[in-house]
Design brief:
two-stranded antiparallel ribbon; 24 helices; mainly alpha; globular
Length: 568
């Protein structure tokens, strides 16, 4: 699953506001800095469920301010969700550790009759389907989260995890490919658990970055679950088989379900922007009370006066609680806005497509090139995870060395994600987008070259670069989408990129056939093919973005300001 870089659920933007009307119907003044629309995780178009003003008010009423929940409870909610993500969010990406166990347990032997290549292809298809489902699931997860809240998402995730564990456990006795469907349901349960946890960053707005880092780190570390199981399997001499393991794993969705119904929030926490809107809302929200307030004070009866005073006191109490939660003065907010604007300007491409519709954005080279690059890189990443051991068995002609490298990879994969998290945000916030893209292409090419060299040092260097590159790549793509396309269409545009990339990951089955059948177990031709495709598309992407970035910078310098409007 891709790692979404959601440093905050909203940001400060500099976009033209000509003719724009506020949510309450009044024309907004053109300000230097205004809050953007809340980032939604729903990639479906708004026409799928049109939102009118009264419905938007209902949505805001369904969300809840963090100040309304005791601090101890919010802390416990964050801790619990980090643990759940650790045991459920991305466990299917520990496939490389689980695969040897399934082979020893006789997976697909009834179909393949002892042919190892046949077993490899079937197991890799199982992982491919799971990887595709994880990415495509962003479509329904985002829609359900936005419309029904995190509790419903969490319950659905627990149900999927339960079904997956049961199918994996009883796969041998079921009359269909239960391993494939079981792994598919485990994959679907992950994003329902992980994506629905993002809203907890609003439980502590001052520490939202830390909370998102913990959740992302838990997602990366979750791939180590099958590594731990493989070690236990080896220590018990194979007596703790996958049947017993997945039965024991049923404890995880059961605990998730219990906590979803008791401790965890039913509604998402309000974002900073929604809480600030609450502060800025009129004291007298009831029109019947607010009519002619300035001119009719002498005609107000005692009951109306009491209602006014009660509303005023409630509003002041809410304002105090929100300010205490945010813990920032006006000077701090101004400084934050300035830092945000400096970051946007530094990127070199920020705002270039913000004022275009989602369809115009999707038809532009900005989208087409990053989408093609994502397709190739996501395919390379998942293909490597699925075939690392047979690749190095073929390259070195030594099974023992391939197992040793595979074991190192199983440990490095979760650690790489955790170690890289603190540095990714710093790099993306302090470097231009063109520099980030150039780094992605350079590192991807280096990994491709190291992956075909028959040297031990090259194999280990390849793995180290790979486990650091994987989270950086996914995060950079979401960062690019936010900066180029904006938050207004983020769900639709980024969701489309990930969904298309996920669907095209089915090409892994064709690559598997080329590797095992056409090239007779030689991984080099397939790796060179992926390397060449990635390099050609990467050069086109970097060249296009670099050219447009220079033109945009010159245009802005000529205009004497940084604008969110651009052309393609």
């Amino acid at each position: 699953m891709s790692l979404q870089r959601v440093g905050s659920l909203e940001t400060f933007v500099n976009v033209p506001t000509e003719g724009r009307r506020s949510r309450r119907g009044s024309v907004s003044s053109v300000a230097a800095s205004e809050r953007a629309r809340k980032l939604t995780f729903n990639p479906l178009p708004e026409s799928w469920n049109p939102v009118f003003d009264d419905e938007e008010e209902d949505h805001l009423a369904q969300s809840r301010g963090a100040f309304e929940v005791p601090q101890w409870k919010r802390i416990l909610q964050v801790v619990v969700m980090v643990v759940f993500c650790l045991f459920a969010a991305g466990i299917v990406f520990g496939y490389a550790a689980l695969k040897p166990v399934l082979k020893k347990e006789g997976a697909y032997q009834d179909i393949c009759h002892g042919e190892d290549t046949c077993v490899e292809i079937h197991l890799n298809l199982m992982f491919t389907v799971a990887a595709v489902a994880t990415n495509v699931a962003a479509l329904p997860v985002g829609a359900i989260l936005d419309h029904y809240g995190p509790r419903v998402c969490g319950i659905i995730g627990a149900v999927f995890l339960s079904i997956g564990a049961l199918l994996m456990s009883f796969a041998k006795s079921l009359p269909f490919d239960a391993l494939l469907f079981g792994y598919l349901f485990l994959a679907l349960g992950g994003p329902f658990t992980y994506i629905s946890s993002f809203q907890l960053s609003n439980a502590f707005p001052r520490h939202s970055g830390l909370i998102l880092a913990l959740l992302t780190g838990a997602f990366d570390a979750s791939s180590a679950l099958f590594l731990v199981y493989r070690i236990i399997y080896g220590k018990t001499g194979g007596s703790f088989g996958h049947h017993k393991f997945f039965l024991a794993y049923l404890v995880v969705p059961a605990v998730i379900l219990i906590f979803q119904l008791t401790l965890l929030p039913k509604q998402s926490y309000k974002t900073v922007g929604e809480m600030i809107e609450e502060i800025e809302a009129p004291v007298f929200a009831d029109p019947s009370i607010a009519v002619d307030v300035a001119n009719a004070d002498d005609q107000v009866d005692e009951q109306t006066a009491l209602l006014r005073e009660e509303q005023r006191e409630h509003h002041e109490s809410v304002v105090h609680d929100i300010e205490e939660l945010l813990g920032s003065s006006k000077a701090d907010k101004d400084e934050q806005a300035q830092r945000e604007e400096a970051r946007n300007e530094r990127s070199g491409v920020w705002g270039v497509m913000h004022n275009h519709t989602a369809w115009e954005q999707i038809r532009s080279p900005w989208f087409v090139l990053i989408c093609l690059f994502t397709v190739v890189q996501m395919t390379r990443i998942n293909y490597f995870v699925a075939t690392i051991r047979p690749q190095y068995e073929a390259i070195f002609g030594d099974t023992a060395k391939a197992i040793e490298i595979n074991n190192f990879f199983d440990l490095a994969l979760p650690l790489g994600g955790i170690i890289s998290i603190p540095f990714i945000g710093v790099i993306l916030d302090h470097t231009s987008t063109i520099a980030v893209l150039a780094t992605l292409v350079t590192v991807a090419t280096t990994i491709g070259v190291l992956g075909v060299l028959p040297f031990t040092w090259a194999a280990y260097a390849n793995i180290v670069l790979f486990v650091l590159y994987r989270p950086f790549y996914y995060t950079a793509v979401s960062d690019y989408s936010a900066k180029v396309f904006g938050f207004r269409t983020f769900g639709k545009v980024y969701g489309t990129i990930i969904c298309l990339s996920g669907l095209l990951n089915f090409s892994q089955s064709a690559l598997d056939y080329l590797f095992h059948r056409t090239f007779r177990g030689d991984p080099v031709p397939v790796n060179l093919l992926l390397l060449t495709l990635g390099l050609v598309i990467g050069i086109c992407l970097v060249g296009y973005v670099g050219l447009k970035s220079r033109r945009l910078t010159k245009k802005r310098e000529a205009a004497g300001y940084v604008s969110g409007h651009g052309e393609y």
